[in-house]
């Protein structure tokens, strides 16, 4: 594989994925794609820019989907106009199956756009940083979701694009371990769903991040900001 | 079914579908969605507006994806910056499988956005006017494509949206017959891929349209413009 596209949010998983594709898989020409879809934590996009530069990508494109938060009628706590982001500890078992931070069908939208980009540019492989959260989950981060998307894309009669999600089914601690080996600078990633000046430390994303660093017995460089 | 979303391009098939959903299926609250993705025949969107009004939809939203033509690097003859639209007669058998007028992964993008809209608004059903072209084809208009998309959407743990494509696998003449019964005004639809003042009469879309009217032995109201 000489060239690939990588979805880059600016969080830990996609930042790790980018380096993984560049260095572990040795893909020479990597095109990073980031999306603004009205997420409250749009500051993750600054981290995405930093990671793209430091990984030496061939290109980094920010796709403006600022209409998206309105398209979904504020139905996500993650986007502008949506409910308040909950703490992970607020979520009961039923809520953890599909928390209010779930963004309706966002991941199919982003993967569909990434596959369109790839097909248009003659790139056959798209990488997606989906990772199995330990304590809550999203259907559109699962192995079954990725398999289903590939079943559809495989119907293309000429230039089928394949989505790879090498971290799907792995824990965030596993991803962190890989990233540390690859020298990812986690001070330059952003996870907190609240997107304020400092990570809140309690939202579902902060809680997962904290757990991953704890599992490896190391300090999160962003924790100093908390 | 009390409410549904309908993808409305402004062409014959989706204009018919809209009336079909409103009148044949009796869905009281229909939300139409149209998309500008850099198509050369953006004038189809005027037809979409007309059809939405005349069908009495609850809402009609135009989603601006004007970045899309650039995202796919001009890889479609249908969009700004792409190659010249071919005549149907220019296409050999291989080209007819996936002509240059195919837009990379557009339909997955549009359906993913429509499903996001539907899920956000508490709508469970999305209608898609895919129809089996007789003489050429697109993989993302097939029954298998729709089935695959539904397999993916069905993984949603709470609010699975279903895509319905009642015309997939039917001929354009069949669709036209249904639309005439429903009183669709085909003078207020637009098919020509070239998107100039008058339909060219020879592009793949004009050729299919012509064939459908011929099959029913009636005159296309737009033919007077040709």
State the fourth-level CATH superfamily of chain A: HUPs
Give the CATH topology of chain A. Answer: Rossmann fold
Proportion in β-strands of chain A: 5-15%
Low-confidence stretches of chain A: none
CATH architecture of chain A: 3-Layer(aba) Sandwich
Average pLDDT over all residues of chain A:
96
- Assembly type of the chains comes to homodimer
Kindly describe this structure:
2 copies of one chain form a homodimer. Helices cover about 35% and strands about 10% of the residues of chain A. With about 230 residues, chain A is an alpha/beta fold. In chain A, strands 3-2-1-4-5 form a 5-stranded parallel beta sheet, sandwiched between helices. In chain A, helix 1 packs parallel to helix 2 (about 45-55), helix 1 packs across helix 7 (about 170-180) and helix 7 crosses helix 8. The longest helix of chain A has 15 residues, at about 105-120. The interface of A and B includes residues 76, 97, 142 and 153 of A.
List the helices and strands and how they pair.
The structure is a homodimer of 226-residue chains.
Chain A: E1 3-7, H1 12-24, E2 29-36, H2 44-55, E3 59-64, H3 68-71, H4 93-97, H5 106-120, E4 125-127, H6 143-153, E5 162-164, H7 172-181, H8 204-215
Parallel strand pairs in A: 1-2, 1-4, 2-3, 4-5
Helix pairs in contact in A: 1-2, 1-7, 7-8
